[in-house]
Amino acid sequence: KAKIAVLISGAGTNMAALVYASRIGDCPYEVVLVASNDAQAPGLALAAAEGIATFAHPHKGMTREAHDAAMEDAVRQAGADYIVLAGYMRILSDDFVERWQGRMLNIHPSLLPLYKGLDTHARAIAAGDSHGGTSVHLVTPELDAGEVLAQVRVPIVTGDTPHSLAERVKLAEHQLYPRAVAEYVSRWRNPAWLLERLRERALALPETS
Ligand code: GAR
């Protein structure tokens, strides 16, 4: 099984969805660590109660690089192959992201490329959009700009507030994220993915005649 470290900052409901999905059937990943920049994050207590290793390292009073290094150490010690961000509300330093590129996923509560950054639900409602949603994407140094792996659209209904929309989007996230992570860590077994990589390789080869 692929080993994943989940990074959280808050409630950790997506982390919980990842953990419970990992215990059903032959899920191709297992959660080996839940780490947070906030020792009080409710998700940490839940992970501990579930018997999962936890790590907390507050970011106050230290540089971004030093904090990222502490998180990365914990991830490596746990033996994780992938980092899965689930409501981790810190921007990561470029070096850290580059070392994990292709092995770090995030879930963002909008239909990317719409509404990168914060307050996604308020912005979708204010724009009069018919739908909000959520996107699972690869993490790259540019914020919320990596390749989108999967999305779910969620309708915005009359009377919605950012809070009510966020709750509805979270329901969709809890379905989407475990499935997207499972598919991603098993991508080697997907013929379409393999063909695409072979095609890329072939196109990158120098012309021979
Ligand atoms: C989720 O909706 C996630 O998409 C969002 O924070 C929430 C975390 O909820 N992430 C971001 O906004 C990242 N920029 P949770 O702690 O209950 O999983």
UniProtKB/TrEMBL annotation:
This protein's GO cellular component annotations are: cytosol
The name on file for this protein is Phosphoribosylglycinamide formyltransferase
The residues listed in the UniProt record as binding (6R)-10-formyltetrahydrofolate, with positions renumbered to this chain, are: R64, M89, R90, I91, L92, N106
| Record: active site | H108
Origin species: Erythrobacter ramosus
Gene Ontology biological process terms in this record: 'de novo' IMP biosynthetic process
Task: Name any one GO molecular function.
Answer: phosphoribosylglycinamide formyltransferase activity
Q: Provide the family line.
A: Belongs to the GART family.
Q: Domain Formyl transferase N-terminal spans what residues?
A: 3-181
Q: State start and end of the fragment within the whole protein.
A: 4 to 212 of 321
